[in-house]
Amino acid sequence: MAEYVTHEHDVLIIGAGGAGLRAAVEASAAGVKVALISKSLLGKAHTVMAEGGIAAAMGNVDDRDNWRVHFADTMRGGQYLSNWRMAELHAKEAPARVRELEAWGALFDRTIDGRILQRNFGGHRYPRLAHVGDRTGLEMIRTLQDHGIHLGLDVFMEHTIVRLLKHGERIAGAFGYDRERGRFHLFRAKAVVLATGGIGRAYKITSNSWEYTGDGHSLAFHAGAALMDMEFVQFHPTGMIWPPSVRGILVTEGVRGEGGVLRNRNGERFMFKDIPPLYVNQTASSEEEGWRYTQGDKEAKRPPELLTRDHVARCIRREVREGRGSPHGGVFLDIAWIKAKIPHAAEHIKKKLPSMYHQFKQLADIDITQEAMEVGPTTHYMMGGVRVDADSQMSDVPGLFAAGECAAGLHGANRLGGNSLSDLLVFGQRAGEYAATFAKEHSFGNTDDGELKSAETWALQPFERKNSENPYAVQHTLQDVMQDLVGIVRQEQEMLEALDRIRELKAASERVSVDGNREYNAGWHTALDLYHLLTVSEIVTRAALERKESRGAHFRDDFPEKNDRFGAFNIVVRKGADGAMQFSRESIPPMQQDLQQIIEEMK
Amino acid sequence: MATATFRIWRGEKGRGQFRDYTAEVAAGMVVLDVVHQIQAEQAGDLAVRWNCKAGRCGSCSAEINGMPKLMCMTRLNALALDKPVTIQPMKAFPHIKDLVTDVSWNYEVKERIPKFKPRPPDALDATWRIAQEDVERVQEFRKCIECYLCQDVCHVLREHHMQEQFIGPRFLVHVAALEMHPLDVGDRLQDLRTQFGIGLCNITKCCTNVCPEGITITDNAIIPLKERVVDRFFDPLGKLFRIFTARET
Questions:
Q1: Per the CB < 8 Å rule, is A107 touching B130?
Q2: B131–A211 C-beta distance less than 8 A
Q3: A236, A314, A430, A556: the active-site residue
Q4: pLDDT above 80: residue A404
Q5: Which among A310, A444, A307 is positioned nearest to A7, based on CA atoms?
Q6: Do B115 and A146 touch (CB under 8 A)?
């Protein structure tokens, strides 16, 4: 034991984005000793990239909004696969979580009467997103970070966890390394919260950074927790596509919320061509009505550009496939056109979408106040994750909690924009609270020296090999496989081929070698991340094979229709005693009567 | 495809040397793309920090041809590629490896700054009423992505190593964001004058020039804070004399 740097905390939080920070704040406030592990520097997590806002039914802009409408919108967006209790808690608690941020120093844009301003976003019936221009995520993470550092947290920056540790059935801690020196660390803890975010790095075109290698998903799976809804990967409809080096970087939905429209190469507003039945009653019937909606006309219905992300992404793909795409294989997103509608449009756009203006100007030489952007779908978000209890966020493993993107339940088959930041706050807070309670009621579990030794030996193997597989090459090949074979549109044959390729890549990952020493060695880190990436890639593929229908973000060419039979269950995976992935179909419990009634009323 | 030479600092704990790498370059590439390409194909253990690759997280700060910049926002077509492009770590911070430096001092400084303290809520529902123009007044400071390029270039830190006495432009911006926050009632002027060392800044504006977010650090944050300190602590008539004596003690 003495050979590892050892730390003891009541609650160990793995991941320092919005969910991890919010959980850390809550657990600290409950008076327990908290460690916060961050794969990067503190404040750099992907939460900073969130642009649009935080969905919370405060009703500041439209007083018809309330938690019931938000609940119904979330369930509809998730194609009714969401955990309805989580959707209820989320809709009820999000407003309080936003106000709390303000009390900690966040400054949101305001209404005329000085309250928090809310903006329109895809799938939300009323203007609902609290925001700060288009840099809401930065405001949120900085607020949580600046609040958290005064609470006595032990922050471990640039540390990566490679294994969760158990004592019998319950959690006992985690084992990992620090990037700077490559030393191994044993984190003993009474409760562990996973808040590791997504899996975007499994795909070639992604809005996610290097960190999002499915660590939490994989750690939980290997520790025996159930994962759910892993077939649902959200492809955000609007990522940058040109120049090639910026491909995948996000273009906020806020552009469409402010009046931006999608056109194909013929200048056609193609989104009007295909409006899903669930949304016909809520969608504008003319371009004029859509414009009025974005300008706050309460009588107008929303333009089809603000339909859910899964649908918009597929429509863009269709336009490109059918030869109506833009020069670089996307479509046009045009906000500059609003100069025909309002005076001082250029200043208005720069004020409402400053980051977007900056991003296109600097990276693509495009002035978005004057010309249209070229955009296409990019891998953005994982709806699936660790299956948790709705109230406490605890997984099947006692003492192991999960919150935010690495947890499943709230978003079902498709997440609405803006529901991610609110998810992080609502369930980060709950995970922190319940993890602290769990820690107070339990003592430390024991860790097994043999298990630590074997994890260490495994982690150091890439240094033992010479001139074998290149970890970067294995990762790039995997990204191609997932992009080409398990992407926006899927079919059985291709996914079976993907499984073969993943099997080969797994074998290759066990042969990777790295040069240099253990200090800040990016090649070594990439080699270790492969374990998680390959685990989640295989789970995504197998879950996608299992769901023989099209629903939300999961679209099957060979089963293009929604099938009610598949709407009755979630696909769940666990690690069997033999180490194999065991999939099961688990029925969604009947919805509580009063919630069911809300759904009926809002149809 | 065209190639170019990239002269990257390799080494650990301040010891090391430049090493040349030849890489293929294509339209639209940024420096970080080249570094990734070299990492994947020629130097697997090359250490570099990065995250968002969109100028939003402030992780990939480095000195490119001697200029402090974000690698992800520096396009190759803005550099002369007929001679080697040098890429080296920020000089003002302790070196760890290759392009990575130890920026932990910044995190320690931030903890020392008294946190946000709001006035009591304005409304019965425990919320506040704030005018949009009051929000906009401080937004400039809240845009900061904590890339620490301003700290890197500040001569008080870079050349004079006065980290003990001076918190640097990043944190003067942070203090300005708190002091000018429409709800904040905290008072950090005494700290600014003493332990934060605002008097050490002699407004050469190097920080403003390198800020990737275009924050007018010196004019909009530091000078107004200096004025507040002066108003508070120095009687206008005896101002010059007292500044002089304050520096002597």
A1: yes
A2: no
A3: A236
A4: yes
A5: A444
A6: yes
Q: Are residues B139 and B174 located together in one domain of the fold?
A: yes
Q: Which residues form the domain of B137?
A: 104-248
CATH number, residue A286: 3.90.700.10
Q: Are A353 and A368 in contact (CB under 8 A)?
A: yes
Write out A359-425 in H/E/C secondary structure. HHHHHHCCCCCCCCEEEEEEEEEECCEECCCCCCCECCCCCEEECHHHECCCCCCCCCCCHHHHHHH
Which tens digit of pLDDT belongs to each residue from A252-263? 988 998 999 999
Nearest-neighbour CA in chain A from B44: distance (Å): 5
The reply to whether omega before A243 is within 30° of 0 (cis) is yes
The dihedral built from the CA positions of residue A459, A460, A465 and A466, taken in this order, carries a sign that is: positive
Report the residue of chain A nearest B33, measured CA to CA: A245
Q: Is the dihedral of CA A342, A348, A350, A353 positive or negative?
A: negative
How close A112 gets to chain B, by Cα (Å)? 7
The interface predicted TM-score (ipTM) is: 0.93
Q: Classify residue A601 by burial, with Cβ atoms within 10 Å: 0-12, 13-18, 19+.
A: exposed
Chain B residues touching residue A209 (CB < 8 angstroms): 50-53, 57
A523 touches chain B (CB under 8 A): yes
Looking at residue B218, what DSSP letter applies? I
A367 and A239 within one domain: yes
* B129 and B75 part of one domain: no
pLDDT tens, position by position, B142-171: 999 999 999 999 999 999 999 999 999 999
- Cα gap A412→A404, rounded to integer Å: 13
Per CB-CB distance under 8 Å, the chain B contacts of A134 are: none
Confidence (pLDDT) at A223: 98
Test B115 with A180 for CB contact under 8 angstroms: no
Q: What's the half-sphere exposure (Cβ side, CA atoms, 13 Å) at A375?
A: 35
Tens digit of each residue's pLDDT (9 = 90 or more) over A153-178: 999 999 999 999 999 999 999 999 99
Task: Write out chain B residues lying below 8 Å of A41, CB-based.
Answer: 49, 59, 103
Which CATH number belongs to the domain containing residue B150 in this structure?
A: 1.10.1060.10
How confident is the model at residue A520, as a pLDDT? 97
Contacts of A211 in chain B (CB under 8 A): 51
Domain boundary among A354, A379, A404: A379
Contact B118 A103 (CB under 8 A): yes
Instruction: Specify the amino acid at residue B115.
Output: K
Nearest CB neighbour to A209, from listed B40, B53, B110: B53
At residue A35, what are phi and psi to the nearest 5 degrees?
-110, 140
| Span B15-33, pLDDT tens digits | 999 999 999 999 889 999 9
pTM of the model: 0.95
